[in-house]
Amino acid sequence: MQQAATIPPPAPPIVARRHAGSLSDAVFALSCGAAGVLVLVLLGAVIVSLFLGGWPALSAFGAGFLSSTEWDPVQDVYGAGVSIYGTLVTALLALALAVPVAFGVAFFLTEVAPAWLRRPVGTAIELLAAVPSIIYGMWGFFVIVPVMASTIQPAVIGTLGELPMIGALFAGPPFGTGILTAALILAIMVLPFIAAVMRDVFEAVPAIYKESAYGLGATTWEVVRGVVLPYTRVSVVGGIMLGLGRALGETMAVTFVIGNANRITPTLFGPGNTIASLVALEFPESQMGSLKLSALLALGFLLFIISFAVLAISRWLLRPRAAGR
Amino acid sequence: MDATLAASRTPQPRRDIAAALGRRRKRTDAMVRAFCIAATLIGLFFLASILLTLIGRGLAAAGLNVFTQVTRPPGSEGGLLNAIVGSLIQTALGALIGTPIGLLAGTYLAEYAQGSRLGEVVRFVSDVLLAAPSILIGLFVYQLLVVPFGGFSGWAGCVALAIIVIPIVIRTTEDMLRLLPNTLREAVIGLGAPKWKMVTLVLWRAARSGIITGALLAVARIAGETAPLLFTSLGNLNWSVALSQPMASLPVTMFNYAGSAFEDWVDLAWTGALLITFGVLGLNILARTVLHRGR
Questions:
Q1: What confidence tens digit (pLDDT) does each residue in A235-268 have?
Q2: What is the model's pTM?
Q3: Are B127 and A315 a contacting pair, CB within 8 Å?
Q4: Span between the terminal Cα atoms of chain A, in Å
Q5: pLDDT digit string (tens) for B203-249?
Q6: What residues of B are in contact with residue A18 (Cβ under 8 Å)?
Q7: Best mutation site among A251, A286, A316 for testing chain B: the one with the most B CBs within 10 Å?
Q8: Does A315 touch chain B (CB under 8 A)?
Q9: Long-range CB contacts (within 8 A, 24+) of B144-148
Q10: What is the DSSP string of chain B?
């Protein structure tokens, strides 16, 4: 009773503090919410500004801008065909090269490697993702390009290039630069991203499923093929799409090794351009407010649409429900 | 009984088939294992090749002039001082602008937006920004700050880098806050503390190592960014720390120098590459250490 009587006195200050608290609470909640909304506004502003900036070019060339392979600053005629082709071909080739290796790395890190080796090797592969893209560009230009020009390309031209059907893909002079070299560099760059996603989802497979398969006498490969891969299928595809998103928008590394030519060549050794490399290379030579600059911004808008679609699909596939299924 | 009878009737052939099948399965397994080891070695080989190339070519030309001289015409003993200082200024300001916004937005996602439609959208958009090509951020800031204000500037570079920082910090902040047990929140609220005190004094403190990790990773990411700076701070051959003027940065200077025909410029580009890469990798390793200490 005595205690109950002593409790009421502090009550007024508590009420007062709750008022103060609720005001600062509201301010804090509001600033958190505002920061969240700012992110939305940023993305919207990126889309709108690229679209508005590219509008003069889009309206001048119409739908033909997408398919036209002409890029002629002298005549002031611009088309996105060559760079869209280059972007898609390099990115898809890069995935074709990177996915098997990334799977191998993830398989190694989750099932094959002894426990003491997993962390250092995993960290090393992740560091590959931290290397800035301009470093890949310089390394590609000064290390990979000479090797391609002196060893790999002549050898391939002499063997695969002689074949009747696919020979055309591997024809032409061995410059060292070109579509295939760009795809190779991109493959090395997206490898750690894909491998990291694969490793994470492989590790999320409940041990009891794998142990059941091992208990039946399955080999490691059979466990991965029969249990791990079916279980993680959707997330693995999501990880590959994430890598595709990276490869599509990569700029500096590609700029160094793609060869910078605004025409479509049938051979993979030929030079080309991607949307990002074309923008990076042509931007310094464009006047503010010129039609060329507008064409570059329109290219940026297209790149945004393509990578947005790929990222949206990837995120949908990697949504938590699928990963923790 | 039936099984043993069947086995005793035709014992030899079955064991042969089983053994052959087993050999084939073992062989496939061994081949796949060998492939995986080879794949990992390929990845490690590329990392080693990049690092060795950087050390070999970067150290070959490194001298004190790199840190004491500004960029000069080829053949006149120039350095990278203005580029290094420009990079430090832009990276620091970019991180200082971007981190608080990312921290607040990440807190919003973890503590205020549970189950809300707006939160879902913000999370999705943040993920899109996280993976969006950085060159597009550069073009955006060019349209936003360079065209209206009539020129390239260090500020524009800082803003472009800040936009790259935000989604990285959002992601790590949200992940780290979600790892905290709800009993912690209940205990603080049960003491009668307002929610903002719960977040700032308890949750942020508990998740401190994770949040610092996110900020460090963001700094590591923007320190090497080139494409967004090409369109915003442009680069500057002279000594300039004025944020309203075009500002030099290490990656952009490397880009211009590496593609040039002058031997000493290419050498300087490699020295810059060495500085950037080991700075970035060092930050990454530091971030990991902070995270592991925190756990």
A1: 999 999 999 999 999 999 999 999 888 888 888 8
A2: 0.90
A3: yes
A4: 56
A5: 999 999 999 999 999 999 999 999 999 999 988 888 888 888 999 99
A6: 194
A7: A251
A8: yes
A9: B144/A45, B144/A49, B145/B232, B146/B231, B146/B232, B147/A288
A10: -HHHHHHHHSHHHHHHHHHHHHHHHHHHHHHHHHHHHHHHHHHHHHHHHHHHHHHHHHHHT--THHHHS---STTS----HHHHHHHHHHHHHHHHHHHHHHHHHHHIIIII-TT-HHHHHHHHHHHHHHHS-HHHHHHHHIIIIIHHHTS--HHHHHHHHHHHHHHHHHHHHHHHHHHS-HHHHHHHHHTT--HHHIIIIIIHHHTHHHHHHHHHHHHHHHHT--HHHHTTTB--SS----TTS-B--HHHHHHHHHTSS-HHHHHHHHHHHHHHHHHHHHHHHHHHHHHHHH-
Tally Cβ neighbours within 10 Å of residue B279.
18
Q: Do B128 and A25 touch (CB under 8 A)?
A: no
pLDDT tens sequence across B144-185? 999 998 889 999 999 999 999 999 999 999 999 999 999 999
DSSP-assigned states of every residue in A147-159: HIIIIIHHHHHHH
Residue A71 phi/psi, 5° resolution?
A: -140, 90
Of B32, B135, B200, the CB nearest to A251: B135
In angstroms, rounded to a whole number, what is the distance separating the alpha carbons of residues B43 and B41?
5
- Rg, C-alpha atoms of chain A: 27
- Give Cα B276 to chain centroid, integer Å: 13
Residue B249: Cβ within 10 Å count: 33
How buried is residue A60: exposed, middle or buried, by Cβ count under 10 Å (0-12/13-18/19+)?
Answer: middle
What is the ipTM metric for this complex? 0.89
Closest CA to B172 of B209, B200, B225: B209
Nearest Cα residue in chain A from B121: A40
Question: Is B85 within 8 Å of B247 (Cβ atoms)?
Answer: no
The residue of A7, A28, A278 whose CB has the most chain B CBs within 10 angstroms, and thus the best one to mutate to test that interface, is A28
What whole-number distance in Å separates Cα of residue A10 and Cα of residue B271? Answer: 67
Phi, psi of B247 (to 5 degrees): -125, 140
Helix axes A179-203, B11-60, angle to 10 degrees: 120
Cite the DSSP H helix spans in A131-178: 133-139, 145-147, 153-159
Cα(A46)–Cα(B252) distance, integer angstroms: 23
- Type of residue found at B164: I
Residue type (1 letter), B110: A
Which one has a higher pLDDT value, A165 or B195? B195
How distant is the alpha carbon of residue B289 from its chain centre? 16
B230·A250 Cβ contact <8 A: no
Between residues 248 and 267 of chain A, which touch chain B (CB distance below 8 Å)?
248-252, 256
Put simply, whether A23 touches B (Cβ < 8 Å) is no
The residue of chain A nearest to residue B196, with distances taken between CA atoms, is: A25
Quick check: A291 contacting B, CB < 8 Å? no
